[in-house]
Amino acid sequence: MRDLFKSNPIEYAYNLMDEGRTNHSELLMACLKWMSHDQIRDMLHENELDPDDCDAFDEGYYTDEISKEERFACEMYNESH
User: DSSP secondary structure string, the chain?
Assistant: First the structure.
């Protein structure tokens, strides 16, 4: 595991979840606590979870199914603003 941690930290993180050593919520919180505001904004934008995309979802512009995670992120954003 030590080699995987060094060579592919994303896969290492997935393995931690698969092994039950953490879950997606804990891992997300760890990432958000570590990342800068700019990194979080960039990540949200690149994953189409910024306010413009959330507003478009709320206004019915998206007709495709979206994942529970995407819906949750938009709802959380809207509740905080």
Answer: -HHHHHH-HHHHHHHHHHTTSS-HHHHHHHHHHHS-HHHHHHHHHHTT-SHHHHHHHHTT---S---HHHHHHHHHHHHH-
Closest-CA residue to 47 (of 79, 78, 74, 8): 74
- Phi/psi for 76 (5° steps) reads -65, -40
**Residue 63 confidence (pLDDT):** 47
Where do the domains of the chain lie? 1-34, 35-81
- Is residue 50 a contact partner of residue 44, using CB atoms and an 8 Å limit? yes
pLDDT at position 9 = 95
Which residues of the chain register pLDDT less than 70? 53-81
